[in-house]
């Protein structure tokens, strides 16, 4: 639950009163829940893509090869965009609506950058490779599948989900441990005289995103 400056405190500086998070507690909890759901869903999606990619790369069964890439194509068309964008947008809302901000804490900034990079890579690199593999196995005859040359796309479809999983694992660690402290901007913000001082300052603690 976000800590806010009590609304009945008439002595708090006007600037400090503006620091109250935009989101009310119920709204913040709702957005946080959605963020966790999208993030866990994204993690599971990439785990599924990795499993299918490894299966397609290593199997000797032509029909299992075809089915693996076609299943990846379904995941890519139906889930990658809404799940990835959902995780990114709910994360942005939490930054905007709580005292964590975008650039006040190093771990928040790292999470934002890695999530944005993962979304861009998923949309403009992973999906095209999945479509290439799915199109190739759809057009190939069963007898052609064992020797089908995808030009390295089959290996990309193992490496890309592996890298994505590593990024999501990093983001999970950052969310739990919140390392590295404040950025230089965050330290300047916290040192301003218009911040709440004394015992009240301890109460103005950012919520856990």
Give the termini distance in whole angstroms. Answer: 10 Å
Weakly predicted, low-confidence segments: 1-20, 196-208
Sketch the topology as an H/E string, one letter per element. HHHHHHHH
Count of discrete alpha- or pi-helical segments spanning 4 or more residues: 8
Tally of individual domains: 1
Instruction: Determine the strand fraction and express it as a percent band.
Output: under 5%
Radius of gyration: 23 Å
Query: Which structural class do you get from the secondary structure elements?
Result: mainly alpha
Overview of the structural elements:
This protein has helices at residues 14-17, 25-58, 62-78, 80-97, 106-139, 153-177, 184-190, 199-203. By secondary structure, the chain is an all-alpha fold. It has one domain (25-139, 150-203).
Show the helix and strand layout:
Blueprint: H1 14-17, H2 25-58, H3 62-78, H4 80-97, H5 106-139, H6 153-177, H7 184-190, H8 199-203
Helix pairs in contact: 2-3, 2-4, 2-6, 3-5, 4-5, 5-6
Task: For the structure shown, list the relevant keywords.
69% helix, mainly alpha, disordered N terminus, disordered C terminus, single chain, 209 residues
Short description:
The chain has one domain. It is built from eight helices and no strands.
């Amino acid at each position: 639950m976000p800590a806010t400056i009590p609304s009945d405190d008439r002595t708090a500086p006007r600037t400090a009163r503006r620091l109250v998070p935009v989101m009310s507690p119920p709204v913040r909890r709702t957005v946080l829940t959605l963020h966790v759901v999208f993030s866990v869903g994204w993690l599971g999606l990439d785990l599924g893509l990795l499993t299918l990619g490894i299966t397609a790369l290593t199997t000797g069964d032509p029909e299992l090869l075809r089915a693996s890439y076609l299943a990846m194509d379904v995941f890519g068309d139906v889930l990658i965009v809404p799940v990835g964008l959902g995780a990114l947008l709910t994360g942005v809302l939490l930054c905007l609506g709580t005292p964590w901000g975008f650039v006040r804490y190093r771990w928040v900034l790292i999470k934002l950058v890695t999530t944005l990079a993962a979304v861009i890579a998923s949309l403009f690199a992973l999906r095209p490779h999945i479509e290439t593999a799915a199109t190739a196995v759809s057009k190939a005859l069963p007898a052609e599948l064992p020797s089908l040359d995808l030009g390295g796309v089959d290996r990309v479809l193992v490496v890309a989900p592996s890298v994505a999983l590593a990024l999501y694992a990093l983001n999970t660690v950052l969310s739990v441990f919140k390392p590295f402290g404040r950025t230089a901007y965050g330290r300047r913000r916290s040192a301003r005289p218009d911040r709440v001082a004394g015992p009240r300052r301890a109460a103005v603690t950012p919520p856990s995103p």
